[in-house]
Amino acid sequence: MSVRVLIVDDDERERIVVRYVLEQINDVEIIGEAVHGLEALLLCQEKKIDLVFLDISMPEMGGLETAYKLQALKDPPLFVFVTAKKDMAVEAFDLGAIDYIVKPVGQTRIEKTINRAKWHIAHRDVVEQLVRQKMKERIDFMLERYKNYEYYSNKLPVREKGKITLLNQNDIIFCESQGKKVFISTPNEGYLSNYTLTELESRLDLNIFFRAHQAFIVNLNYIQEIMNFGEGSYLLRLKDADKNIILSRSKAKSLRQKLGIQ
Questions:
Q1: What is the CATH number of the domain that holds 193?
Q2: pLDDT tier for residue 153 given thresholds of 50, 70 and 90
Q3: Can you give the pLDDT at residue 152?
Q4: What is the mean pLDDT of the chain?
Q5: Number of structural domains in the chain
Q6: Does residue 29 sit in the same domain as residue 99?
Q7: Nearest Cα to Cα of residue 101 among 217, 21, 218, 158
Q8: Quick one: 124 and 189 in the same domain?
Q9: Potential cystine with 55: which of 9, 40, 171, 254 (Cβ 3.0-4.6 Å)?
Q10: How many whole angstroms separate alpha carbon 203 and alpha carbon 199?
């Protein structure tokens, strides 16, 4: 792994020393040099920089201010302070520096910093890879979902008695598991479908539907009353339905949060 570095110091002699030391270390690529913070920021925006060696005392924009602004970049580099000041390490590490080197610099000390930077870069790459993998898994899941099911906007297709009825999801009051089939209740009619409740959970709009029990999914917009059923269980009384729905104890807290009930 090659570490791409930028040297920032207003003193040319100090830049020469740091450059010389870095050139003796394997897997280091010096991308450029800057004499103050503003120039460093511009270079970091233009080029891919992994690690910035920053002096603290510089004209126009000092090292601490530069470090703060580096972190606001879209792809911020790591940074380390190389300075004659011995008493600013706390401020440096508070800003997120990976190291604090007091001049004069030596090869062994710089090598430790480079190895530390390699660890941070490897860790960052692993995290980014995991994030990309999670995003890919989520996209694959959504694509598989759309591939396996027919979608009719806000409609739920129900096959029954040789026909397909397209139910408006807003009209569904509750769904109840009944053996190998699921009963879907609407204000005007009931339908016995071949869905499972798990399949319906993946198809219904979960902003308005809630799995109240292992045997029930309920439309939140139809809940009129939540009645205590004893021992932490509840019954849900629904508008336009003769059936009260059981709310399991394990689901009660989630329902209260979903409905904004304290």
A1: 2.40.50.1020
A2: low
A3: 47
A4: 88
A5: 2
A6: yes
A7: 21
A8: no
A9: 9
A10: 6
> Which residue type occupies 3?
V
Q: Which of 123-137, 169-183, 216-230, 241-255 has the lowest mean pLDDT?
A: 123-137
Tell me if the bond preceding 77 is cis, omega within 30° of 0.
no
- Cβ contacts of residue 136 below 8 Å, gap of 6+? none
C-alpha–C-alpha distance, residues 104 and 91, integer Å:
20
What residue type is assigned to position 126 of the chain? V
In a domain, 14, yes or no: yes
| CA 115 – CA 27 distance, rounded (Å) | 10
Longest dimension (CA), the chain: 89
Angstrom distance (rounded) from CA 190 to CA 184: 6
Strand, coil or helix: what is 158?
strand
- Around Cβ 131, how many Cβ atoms within 10 Å? 10
Q: How many contiguous H segments (helices) and E segments (strands) does the chain have?
A: 7, 15
Residues 189 and 109 reside in one and the same domain: no
Identity of the amino acid at 50: D
